[in-house]
Amino acid sequence: MKIRQNKLILCLMFADVMAVDKIEPNRRTNIIKTEGEPVTLSCSYESDSEYVRLYWYRQYHNGEPQYLLHQEAEVSKIDPRFCVNIPEREHVDLEISSAAVSDCSVLLCSEAHSDRKHSQIILMCNTVYIVHSHVVPACSKFSLHSI
């Protein structure tokens, strides 16, 4: 009997591009979650400005970035599982209430609706098959292009 169990491996990769003064994801490099569990992705920034607006985007392989929500939005109109939490100044969390394999993408935390400054977070998925108590990984890999 073969049981399929989906695991999500979230790899946070850093790509700083110039301008807020600095935007970067949190420092955890790997988050392993089972499908259906909540996930929190953090983005920190530095700015002399009192008012900064950050946006979250999702980009699938070979696709265009898709707007999810900005820091003042409570819940994404694209996907209600996505919401923003601001635990402190210069820190914005993207919370996914129930992780799904369809979340495997590049997530971008960006200043304004531009590519001037952003951090990218790459969500990669790994499907694990459990066969008679033996774990046999079956990785689905894809190449991602820097933005």
Automatic annotation (TrEMBL):
Keyword presence, Protein biosynthesis: no
Q: What is this protein called?
A: T-cell receptor alpha/delta variable 40.0
Give the UniProt entry's GO cellular component terms: T cell receptor complex
- The residues forming the signal peptide are 1-19
Q: Sorted alphabetically, which keywords does the UniProt record give?
A: Adaptive immunity, Immunity, Immunoglobulin domain, Receptor, Signal, T cell receptor
**Pfam short name (any one):** V-set
Species name for this entry? Sinocyclocheilus anshuiensis
Q: Which GO terms describe its biological process?
A: adaptive immune response
- InterPro entries in the cross-refs: Ig-like_dom, Ig-like_dom_sf, Ig-like_fold, Ig_V-set, TCR_variable_region
Q: What is the lineage of its organism?
A: Eukaryota, Metazoa, Chordata, Craniata, Vertebrata
User: Locate the Ig-like domain: which residues?
Assistant: 25-122
Going by the entry's taxonomy, the superkingdom of the source organism is recorded as Eukaryota
